[in-house]
Specification:
The chain is of the alpha+beta class. It contains 2 helices and 3 strands, in the order αβββα. It has one domain. Strands 1-2-3 form a 3-stranded antiparallel beta sheet, covered by helices on one side. Strand 2 and strand 3 form a beta hairpin.
Length: 88
């Protein structure tokens, strides 16, 4: 598809090594208000998304990075709750 200059969108698994690297490199960038995408009518819930230019075999490509902060926030809250139990 790259050789034929075709436009295409390919979903990459989150287990792909380059995907994890991209997520780690751009997490702080993607979590900015300008990258918020509202997912509810009251706009209280949001995903984050941004386009990241890159090259594959010398050809320009755009990687679309999406990030959902809710699972991370839930894990942090659970960790803090667990730590409070051990404080007592």
């Amino acid at each position: 598809m790259l050789q034929d200059n075709m436009d295409f969108c390919l979903v990459a698994p989150t287990t792909a090594p380059w995907q994890g690297e991209l997520n780690d490199e751009r997490r702080d960038d993607v979590e900015m208000p300008e990258h918020a995408i509202s997912i509810s009518e009251d706009e209280c819930e949001a995903l984050y998304g941004m386009t990241v230019p890159d090259k594959i075999d010398g050809r320009r490509v755009y990687k679309l990075l999406y990030y959902d902060a809710a699972p991370r926030s839930e894990r942090i809250a659970a960790l803090f709750a667990s730590l409070r139990c051990w404080e007592g």
